[in-house]
Each structure stands twice: as structure tokens, then as C-alpha cells.
């Protein structure tokens, strides 16, 4: 018996897509995945850019609210250009004179010429009750060096912190702080200081901080050592202090952005300034609605300036991160 074997080709089941269709489906799925990744990347970049903008605006705002601990910040601007930064600090014990009971300091964040023509700060006291007519223009010790390194300046932020450091039996006086319009000179008496616009006063034992802020666009311009338009100033005065003692400590802080002189360009670092006009505007709107002279409410055992600064940061920055800018 013969057995015949017939071999027939086996046909694959019919496919609606076929091998090419399957590859097409895989390619389409990959394309969709790639497109989703690109969208995610774009959203992330937009989010990062927005976060950077918020960071620039909040950095400037933090400098305005806490100048001592926020050095190195530049003013957000419309264009970017190379500039440097520096901070000047002064610790000053101002004594009451014989027969006097009042002391004061006036601060204008400018470089100045070392004299009365463009004073950086003025120390005030007097020889009778309430007198502040003895006025001595001074500057920080680092200012002469700054003049050699930079050719143009604009203030970023500044502050005066006044702390009572005497015995509790002598802390019954009053302290006053004010933000003064440009070209306003320090008063010659505490009575005159009480007539300053928008002044704030509190018990001397509590201490005082006054924060500087720009008045208008003129404060955003780089100017020389003796500015054409002087910035606004800040002022703190205290009265009711025994005569012949140094019971009030003043800490002055000034932050500047500056244009580096060409002959020291390799010595001082200059980096591009930030661009963030919206953050700049929102920061100014915030400080314009903020009390710039305030009671530190410091305890007698913690009258050091460091405590005052820590208190202020905790108080002012508690809600800052939630500000929409």
C-alpha cells in the first residue's frame, strides 16, 4: 500500500493590520509617548522659568525687608548688564552729651564724598534736653576702598537697627523711626523729629528697626559718588536717656549694586544683572504697603542686634513664601 503525503502551505490567519500595521501601531505609540514627554519638558521649563522669576522678585523683596542678611542681591531690571555688589556695615555707639538726653542717626544709602556735601550718615546729639543740633557727617570705613573699585552706584536696600544696651533703670525713654523723602536733612531736636511724616515711636527698651525703600525711578539709576539726585533717607532718634552715657547702639547696613571701574575689572567680579520687571514691580508694591519702621519688641536680656535681626526675619518672612508675585 502506498501512502501519499500532500504538503500544503499553511496560511497565517488573516490580520486586519498586518506586520507593517503592527509596526505602525508600535511607532504611533512611541510617537505619542515622545510627544507627551516633550509636553512635560515644556511644562517643566515654563514652571522652572516662572519659579526663577518668582525667585528673582522675592530675592529683591527679601533684601528690602532684611538688608543685613541678604547681601549680594541686585535690582531686577529691564535689561541685563555686568555689575557687582557690595555691603557696607557700621556699628555705632552714640553717647548723650553733658546736659543732653537725646541721640539720633540719619542714613542715606549713597557713597558720598566723605563730607557734608553728600553725607552717608550723620550722628546727632546735643547739650540740652531734646537737642540734636550737634550733627557730625560720617561714612563707613570701607567707603574709600569702594570708591577705587567702582564708578557708578545705586542702592539696593538699607536699614538702621537701634538697640538699648543700658541698665533697666535707665530704659524709660522713647525711640522714634521714620522713612524720609529725598533731600530731607536730620531735625535739630526731638520735638522737630516728632513732626516728621509717617514716623513711628515706641518705648526705648523695645528697640527700633527702620527699613529703606526707593522713592521713585531716580533711585534705580546708577550715579557717581556725589549723586545728582540723592536717595531718600531713614532716621532713628531716641530721647529720655541719662546724660554722658552710651546706651543706644546703632547698626547701619547698606547694600549696593555697582558698575566696576575698567582698571579693576580683573579684580572685582561682575556678572549679568537679572531681568524681571514684574518681580521688581510686585516687590515694590509689597513694601509700599508695609510698615518700614517697627518695634523690635526685644527682651532686655537679648538686646543684641543679632537677636533683633532673627526676630525680624521670623516676623517678616513667615508668610513671604506664599506671596504671589
Describe the structure.
- With 325 residues, the chain is an alpha+beta fold.
- It has a domain at 80-274 and 292-308: Jelly Rolls (Sandwich), CATH 2.60.120.
- The chain has helices spanning 18-65, 143-149, 190-193, 277-288, 305-316, and strands at 82-93, 102-107, 121-125, 134-138, 150-164, 174-180, 200-203, 208-211, 233-239, 248-260, 271-272, 293-295.
- Strand 3 and strand 4 form a beta hairpin.
- Residues 1-10, 47-54, 298-309 and 321-325 have low confidence and may be disordered.
Quantity of strands, as a count:
12
CA-based gyration radius: 31 Å
Largest sheet: 6 strands, antiparallel
**Backbone structural class:** alpha+beta
Strand line-up across the major sheet: 11-1-10-5-8-12
* Element-by-element helix/strand order: HEEEEHEEHEEEEEHEH
What CATH architecture label of the domain at 80-274 and 292-308 applies?
Sandwich
Tertiary shape: globular
Low-confidence stretches: 1-10, 47-54, 298-309, 321-325
Explain briefly what this protein structure is.
The protein is α+β, with helices and mostly antiparallel strands and 325 residues long. Helices cover 26% and strands 26% of the residues.
